[in-house]
Structures are given as C-alpha cells and as structure tokens.
Design goal:
By secondary structure, the chain is of the alpha+beta class. It is built from eight helices and 14 strands.
C-alpha cells in the first residue's frame, strides 16, 4: 500500500526568464497518489472518497466516528478489503468492508445523512445544533500558549514525509499541549487526513482527545471543526484561514480555533490567550 502513496511520471519542466523560455528538459517527477476508497458497512455502501492509499483502516474508523456511527474500537468487529475489488484478478484494495459489533446500526436514513454531509454539508444554526446533539464529549477549554502555536507549523511539516516528495498533499496531526507529535497522517484530502488521525486515536483508545491539539496543514472548514469536536479536541490549529461556519461552530462549542499559524503570528478566532 505504501508504494501507491506516490507515483512517478515523466514531465516536461519549463524554465522562464520573464516570458522567455530558457530551458526545457524531461525528467521524472513524483506526484501524490489518488485513488477511490469505497467504504461499506455490512455490505452496504456508505461512502466513496478519493484518498491517498495508506492507513485505510484508520480512515474508515475515523470517518465512522466523525459521522457518529461508532464510539469505540469495540464497535467494529471486522474491517477487511473486499475480494470483489479486483482488476484482472488482482485486489485493488479500494473497497473496504466494515462489520459492526451491533448489527443494523446504520439504516437508509443514516446513509442519506452521511452522503449529504460528505458531499456538501449543511449551513448555519441547524448544522451546529446537530453537531452538539451528536457529539459524545464535552469540549475542554484550552487557553492558547503562543510559544506552542509558534512551533506547531514547523513541527507538523517535519513529519510530512510525502509532502517533501510531492509538494502536494495535506497533513493532520495530533499534538500534546506542549507541542509534541503523537500521530501525523497525510492524505490528498484534508478531511481524510483528519479522519486517519482520529481513527488512529480511536484504535489506540485515546479518545476523547481532550488533552491534544489537532493541527491541519490546510484551512479550517466546518467539517474539520465538526470532526475535531466529535473526537473531543479542545483546540484546532490550521495554517490557513477559517471559514465563517467554522468560526461560528468553534465559538458555539467552546473549541479554541487558530488560523494562519506561523512561527511569528497567528489569528485567534475562538478561545483565549494563556496568561
């Protein structure tokens, strides 16, 4: 699976001086792998996501937890790649079948809700109210330590092995409150990267993540705040901007939300500074 996280292609590199072409050469270039993963529960397709192959079991656990379908590792009795997911007799590992310990947990109504949330989300107060009803954990109040925030972007980047190869992949990481990495995962989709981290923590019995910070290499969207809240994170730190609904949701749930995190500055959208 690790070998499919990146692929190599022959590309033409063009160098310019202003508008003048100064050099043209062909060489190998490494790009991020992107393949579909169909997640089934009890044989029923729940969702299909475009992801970077790797840590698929964590991704499935994190997704199911973020959608409110499971609460603990014991809720999943088996996770396996489907033998029917083959091309020319070879397993493509793009279809994952999950069996839940409690049968018939996910019905048609849940299926439609999951597909809607994954595809486009919903807006405004109803989204926040629904999240607060579904979340299993209280969000802890975590004041912001500027010294910790300042080092998180570089600490995340240090763990981004695939980014160093491709320059085109998102990362999510769970860090301790003093800025030490616990787990970092990469994926072409920022939501998938977050689900892989949450899935890892769930499988290690580390939820709720009320003593950890979720750090993203992307912007902070409502979906990421939602996933962080469902996992019990008290703080979400992003290197880019926050959306309006992400800010509103963070403030309503009591989550600390930081954006545009840099070694010398950051925006505090929700929460307080440590005194």
């Amino acid at each position: 699976m690790a070998g499919r996280a990146t692929k190599s292609f022959a590309v033409t590199k063009v160098h310019l001086d202003g508008t003048e072409v100064t050099q043209v050469d062909t060489r190998a270039d490494i790009v991020t792998g992107e393949e579909p993963l169909e997640i089934r529960v009890g044989g029923q397709t729940l969702t299909t996501t475009m992801r970077t192959p790797g840590h698929d079991i964590e991704l499935a656990h994190g997704f199911l937890h973020s959608e409110g379908h499971i609460a603990a590792l014991a809720d999943v009795s088996e996770a396996r790649y489907c033998a029917g997911s083959t091309v020319d007799g070879m397993n493509t590992y793009n279809l994952l079948d999950i069996d839940l310990a409690q049968k018939n947990v996910i019905g048609l109504k849940d299926l439609r809700l999951t597909l809607t949330n994954s595809a486009c989300g919903v807006c405004g107060t109803s989204s926040i109210d629904e999240l607060q009803k579904r979340s299993r954990y209280d969000i802890p109040e975590i004041p912001v330590d500027p010294a910790v925030i300042a080092k998180l972007p570089d600490a995340l980047r240090t763990e981004q092995k695939l980014f160093r190869k491709t320059g085109g992949i998102h990362a999510a990481g769970a860090f301790t409150l003093d800025g030490q990495p616990v787990v970092v995962r990469e994926d072409i989709g920022r939501h998938n990267a977050a689900d892989k981290v949450i899935g890892h923590l769930l499988m290690e019995n580390r939820l709720p993540a009320d003593d950890l910070i979720l750090v993203m290499s992307s912007r902070a969207s409502f979906e990421l705040v939602q996933k962080a809240a469902m996992a019990g994170f008290g703080m979400l730190v992003a290197v880019s901007a926050a959306s309006s609904l992400a800010v509103e949701t963070a403030r309503e749930t009591g989550m600390t939300l930081v954006g545009f995190a840099r070694p010398d500055r950051f925006n505090l959208y929700s929460g307080t500074l440590k005194r």
